User: Fold this.
Amino acid sequence: MINRIVVGAHYGLKDWIVQRATAVVMAFYSVFIVTIFLTLRPSDFDVWRSVFANGAVKFFTFLFALSLFYHAWIGVRDLWMDYVKPVSVRLTLHALTILALTGYTAWIAAILWRL
Amino acid sequence: MSALRIRKRPKYLDLFSIMFSLPMPGLLSIFHRVSGVGLFLALAPLIWLFGASVTSPESFECFARVTAHPIAKLSFAGLIWAFLHHFCAGIRFLFIDLDVGVDLAAARRSAAIVFVASLTLTALICWRILL
Assistant:
């Protein structure tokens, strides 16, 4: 592996690491939530709701959502950078992506903390 | 002088011809991107469905009705594949980042494993929860 400086101005390296760190968080959460589903086998509304009303599940679900949105931001931004050349269009798409993901963050927080 | 002339880099950007002649790790990579885009586009409907499923018995009824529709089931089958491919291929990329399985033979083998694993899991999960 090439030895690059991890501390400092970062440039692309910070996002590269965030992409992987958020992936690891999501992988662990996926195993965690699937284990809960397979254990409790929620089949009606009350049990299903109580899974996510649990404080720990709520907390980890929100962490999962934050990781997902940050991960999606880097992925989609790379997509715009690869395929959209005009700066004005690219900047607009960047802004719309950030706005959508920020909105989703508030949305998921509202859903979880109403429980 | 002529020996020193820098060769022009070959430029071959016909996307579809490239796609159909890709070796398995390349195919895995492009599907990693395609599945990521699909999952991103599905975020809003998925958050809406999740909200409906946990908010109230009435909204749960609505959730159950929507997800029972054949079009919804078909979309879910696609999304389950997208998630599992992205998941398995992502774990493969993490190992490659750690310098595990970098040589060509290993990379081709792990790419094949990802395709088999994600498609098998997709079939299994669709059979268990969608049928």
Summary: Chain A touches chain B at residues 1, 20, 23-24, 27, 30, 45, 48-49, 52-53, 72, 75-76, 79, 100, 104, 107-108, 111, 114-115 (CB under 8 Å).
